[in-house]
Amino acid sequence: MGRFEIDGALFIFLSRGQKLEKRDAQINNFWPDNRYVLWPRAQYWDVRYLDRSHGKQQWLPIAEKPFADQSAAWQTAYGHWLDRKTLG
């Protein structure tokens, strides 16, 4: 697993079979509150973002279909973050 922060969001890359840990959704002073998780699923890649609206926390998909590869997943995740950041 790898994680990095860029432009106010945390991106978490999981390896095949890895699971998110409870702390990945917790607010802390070290990592930004805006979170994305990317992981391989079968022959595709999935991406979700952490939504904290309406008093709930849930990982929501950023697209209706999975992505063909890690690069497409990453580019779409970062684009999704930039759109959310711009809308503010």
Q: What's a quick, concise take on this entry?
A:
The chain is α+β, with helices and mostly antiparallel strands and 88 residues long.
Q: Can you characterise this structure?
A:
With 88 residues, the chain is an alpha+beta fold. The protein has one domain. The chain is built from one helix and five strands. It has a five-stranded mixed β-sheet with strand order 1-2-3-4-5, covered by helices on one side. A hairpin with a 2-residue loop joins strand 1 and strand 2. The longest helix has 18 residues. The radius of gyration is 12 Å and the shape is globular. The model has no long low-confidence stretch (mean pLDDT 90).
Q: Please give the number of β-strands.
A: 5
Order of helices and strands: EEEEEH
> What's the N-to-C terminus distance?
29 Å
Q: What is the percent of helical residues?
A: 10-25%
Give the low-confidence spans.
Answer: none
Radius of gyration: 12 Å
Count of all domains: 1
**Tally of individual helices:** 1
Strand sequence of the main sheet, in spatial order?
A: 1-2-3-4-5
Fraction of residues in β-strands: 25-35%
Q: Rough shape?
A: globular
Q: What structural class results from the helix and strand content? A: alpha+beta
Major sheet: 5 strands, mixed
Q: What is the residue-mean pLDDT, rounded to a whole number?
A: 90
Q: How would you describe this structure in keywords?
A:
about 90 residues, alpha+beta, five-stranded mixed β-sheet, 1 helix, 5 strands, about 35% strand
